[in-house]
Amino acid sequence: MTTRAVTPYRSPVTAPRESFWHLVHAEWTKFRTVRGWVIAALVTILAITAFAFLAGSISGGCTAVSGASAAASTAACPVQPTGPGGEPVQDAFYFVHRQLTGNGTITAQLTSLTGQVDVGPGSNGQPQTAPGLQPWSKAGIIIKENTAQGSAYAAMMATGSNGVRMQWDYVNDTPGLPGSVSVSAPRWLRLVRDGDTVTGYDSADGAHWMPVGTVTLPGLTTTVKAGLFTAAPGTDAATVTGVFQHIGLSWPATGWTATNVGGTGPNGVGQPGTLSQSGGALTVTGGSGDIAPAAGISVQRALLGTFFGLVPLIVVSAMFMTGEYRRGLIRVSLTAAPRRGRLLAAKAVVIGAVGFVAGLVAATLALAVATPIVRRTGIPVWPASPLTEARMVAGTGALLALAGVLALAIGTIVRRSAPAIAAVIVVIFVPYLLAFGPLSGGHGRAGGGGGGWALQVTPVAAMAAQQALPKFYQVTAVYRVSDGYYPLPGWAGLAVECAWAAAALALAFYLLRRRDA
Amino acid sequence: MSLAARVSPSPHPVVQALHAEWTKLRTVAGPAWLLAGIIALTVTVGAAAASAAQCSSAACGIDPAKVSFTGIYPGQAVVAVAGVLAIGNEYSTGMIKLSLTAMPRRLTWLFAKTAVLTAPVLIASALAVAGSALAGRLILPGHGFTPAHGYASLTAGTDIRAAAGTVVYLTLITLLSLGIATAVRDSAAAIGLVLGLLYLFPILAAVISDATISRRLQQIGPMSAGLDVQATIGVNSLPLTPWQGLGVVALWTAAALLLGALVLKSRDA
After folding, report:
1. What total number of domains does chain A contain?
2. How close, in Å, is residue A449 to chain B by CA atoms?
3. Size of the A and B interface in Cβ pairs below 8 Å
4. What is the predicted pLDDT for the residue at B155?
5. Between chains, do A311 and B67 touch, taking CB under 8 Å as contact?
C-alpha cells in the first residue's frame, strides 16, 4: 500500500498587504461597531453642547437694557463704553484740552507726578487715603478724537512705577524712558499728529528726542482734542496730580477747557478734577478712573462643558485598549498584526481622530448656541475674531484628541480599565480643581501660587487653547482660572498635553512590545 | 459522606459569606496595592500642598486642615477604584456566576462584599489622614500658620472633626463606588460615573459664576459638600454645615447602594 502525499490546503485568498491604513481601518471598524463606544462619543458632543446653554449663568446684578423682560429686582446695567475695536473699555479721566484741526504737535514737560491712594477704611469707617501712586497711575499728553467715552486716542504719559509709556486705543501699550518723574528728573513728552497717524516722543532734557512709537488711529476725524490728562486707577478716593511746564502747541489756540471724561459716577471718574495755573506751570489733578481695557466675559463661556465631555471620551479611549485585554481579543489582534507598535499607532490614530472630530463638532455647536446667550447677559463681551473662534474650535478638538491618546496609552500600560481611567481623570481634573483648592483661598488665581503651576505642567494646561479673553499687563487685575484665564498661551498648553500623551505613548509602545500579551 | 461531615458544622450564612469574601480580598495582590496607594498618594500630595502653602498675614484665609488634606483630591480616586473593582472584577472575570451560585442570597453576598471592603479601606483612610495631619503639623507652622496669624492650635475640636470626617468621607466614597459598580456592572463605566460625580460638580460650581446656582451645586455635589467637613475656618459661611455636608455624601452613598441592590436582585448576573 502506498500512501499518497497530501498537499496541504492553501487558501486561495491572497494575504492582504500589511498596510498601516488597513490596520487603521480594522481598528476603526472595531470602534464603530461597539454601540456603547459610539454612544459615548456622541455623549461627549452632547455634554459640551448642552452646557453651552449655561453660558449665561452669571450673577452680574444687572440686566441688559435691551432685555424687554428685565426682572424688576435687578437694576439696569450702566452702559459700558466700547473702544474702536468693539472691546469693553474704561474711559474715565480728567482731560484739559484745546481743539486741534488738521496736523499739529503738542509738547509738555512733566516735572512732578504725585497722588493719593486708598489705604482702607479708617476708624470712622470712611475710606482713608495716603500719599502714593498705583503702578499704573498716569499723567501726560493725549490726542483724542473727542471727549466721548470710547473714542480713539493716542497718549504719551508718565506712570507710577512703569516709566514713560505710549498708549493708544485702550489695549495698546509700548514703553519709553524708564524711571519715575521728579523735578530733578523731569520727562519731556511730545505727540505729533499727521493725518490719522500719531507719533510719540520722549526726552529727558527737551533737546534730545527719542521716538517711542508711531501708531495709526483709523478714521481719525480732522478736528480732534489735544491736551493734558491724569487718570488714577483704583478706588473712588484715589487721585493723581501732574505738574506740567513748557507746554508748547504748534497751532494757535488760547485757553484750556477741562472735562471729566465719563462724568462722575459709575463708569465715570470718582471725583471731579481740578486745574490750577501759576506762571508757566499747569497743575492737573484728576480723580479715580483709567483709560484702559475693561473686564468682561467672552464666548469662551460656551465651552464650560468641556470637562463633562472629557469623561466619556477618556472612558472609551482607555477601553479601546483595555477591552482587548479583558476579552482576550488582544491575542487575535496581535496575531493579525504582529508588529505591535503599528497596532498601537493605528489605535492612537483612530481614537485621536474620534476625539478631534468630536471636539470640532461639539465646540462649533457650543459656540453657535452660546454666542447669543452670552450677549444677552448684559455683561460686556470681549469680541472674539473669527480666527480666535477657529482657534477655540480646533483647540477643543486637539485637547480632546490628545486626552484620548493619553487615555489609550495609559490603558496600554496598565491593561486594566478602572485604574487607567482613574489615573487619566485624576491627572487632568485634579490640577484644575486645585487651582480653586485650599491653597488658593478659593480664588482660583491663574498666575503665581495658588495652584497656578499645576495648570502649567499637567495635561489640563491645554484648556488654555480655549481662552478668548486677552490679558493686559498695563492693567492691575487679577486673572482668575474661574473667569477663564490660564497661565500659559494656548499653543504652549497644547504642547504640554502633547508631551504627556507622547511620553505615555512611548512607554506604552515599549511595554507592549516587551510584555507577553 | 466525608464531604458531608466536613460541611455539616456550618456557621451562619452571613459569616460564611464574610469569610469567603475576605479570602477573595486577601489572596489577590490588587487590593493591597490600592490600599497602599491610598496612603501614599494622600500623604504625599498633602505634604506637598503644606510645603507650598504660605500664610503671610492674619487674614490670609487659608484653612490649614484643608491644606493638610489636599491629598484627598487624588486619594479619593484610588478609594473609588477599590470600590469599583470589588464588584467590577466579579463581572469582568465571570466570577460573579460562581459567587452567586455559592451564595444565592444576593443581598447577603452584597452585604458581605461591602463589609469586607469597608474595614480595610477605613483603616487605610485613617492611616492616610493621620499621616497627612502629622505632615501638616510638622510643616505648616514653618509657613506662617502660627498663633500670631490666628492659627492657635492644630488639635482643637474642629481639627479632630476635620480628620475624623475625612476618614468617614473616604469610606463613604468606597461604598458609593461599590454601589454604582453594582448598578452598572462594568468597571470602566462605573469609574467614569463615580469620578465624574465627584469632580464635575465642583468644577461646574467654580466656572458657573452665578452665585446662587454655584452655591446650590456645592451643596448637591458629593465632593464639595463632603469636604465641608474639613473646614476649620469660616465655618459659618460654608454652603452647608460640616456634618450636613457629610450627610449629603451619605445620602448619595445610600442611593447608590440601594440602586445597586435593586439591580443585583432583579437582573440576571
Report:
1. 2
2. 8
3. 121
4. 59
5. no
